[in-house]
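Entry:
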Amino acid sequence: MTSKLLRPALAAALLVSLGGCVVAPYGYGYGYGGRDPYAAEDGPVVGVAPPPPQYEVVPAAPGLGYVWIGGYWGWNLGRHVWIGGRWAMPPAGRSWVPGSWGRYGDGWRYRGGYWGRR
């Protein structure tokens, strides 16, 4: 009898606890404490140069006004990983400035792309 009442109660508690969850991409206005949410982010300094960019087939735009943000080599778990490009709608008065890898001391650092003012 207890198990018949306990399961629905647990399911209801789970739904209520997850009801307030928000999944938001890092770097888009959450936790910036007054900083510009469109500012570029610097990655870690790594000892391995990135490979050459990969060729990407750019699909048709999903609509008018979208801009293509090309893919780039990111750094994850001690190695370079390719992050594929995507279409995005620019914020009002902004244009996309691509990120790039550059020398930083004895290593390499990725400076992320950002939405710059026009």
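Residues 2-18 form the longest helix (17 residues).
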